[in-house]
Amino acid sequence: MRLWDWALEVYARPNAAEACLHLQDAHGQNVPYLLWAAWTAAEGRAVDLAAAAALVRRWDAEVGAPLRGVRRALKPAQPPVDDAARETLRDAVKAVELQGERVLMETLEAVSGPPGPPTPLLDGLSAAARALGDPPREAALARLADALS
b/e string for 72-110 if b means 16 or more Cβ within 10 A? Predict the structure, then answer.
């Protein structure tokens, strides 16, 4: 299954979105990258984690985090800005942010090896988090692995 389709399916599972967003907000992890890491583990795909982590750090600094920041800044009322106009703009930014996540995931998928024997999700998530830098506690990654399983 293609990464984007797989990610949409598993992200909708109970507790998955919450676990992803906790890892993003509390531990500085990148949600598309973590989903990619789980997908590569489930598919048994060989990856160059160092190269993928470097790509994600650059993408997040230049694209992902700025878009997320704009979307979040637009959430509360901004008097005297019209609420309907602000919400319309926020929805447009949210759509662009989601498209950016898709572009990142398609790029990560393109640099992944062919399918092979699967590996445990927690192992894949832990290795990816370490490659990205300052990994979160194992318990946070375990919650995500459980939600995605």
Answer: eebeeeeeeeeeeebeeebeebeeebeebbeebbebbbe
